[in-house]
Write a structure and sequence with these properties.
This protein is mostly helical. The protein is built from 5 helices and 2 strands, in the order ββααααα. Strand 1 and strand 2 form a beta hairpin.
Amino acid sequence: MATKKAKNGQNLEYIIIRPTSGFSAGQIADGILMEETDMDVIKKKYPTWNKLVSRFKDNLLEFGWSGLDYAWEKIEHYTNYDKAHSEMVEYVKKLNPELS
């Protein structure tokens, strides 16, 4: 549970629901790495789970399922895929620890 102050000054309570199924941390990592491979830039641009998932959805629409399946080929052109992928998976799990 969390609280947030409304414009009228009233405190509102709401529940934060984080998905625990659907895309894996590795798939989300690949989806983000298709656009940007520098972890410092990614952490500055997407400091929250919601911003990260929003970018992932945009990249999925732009590159499609086949782009996600073969993301390692595109990423390998710019950087070491294994290193970038493992760093990105750690960051995704840091933002949403319940994700597998």
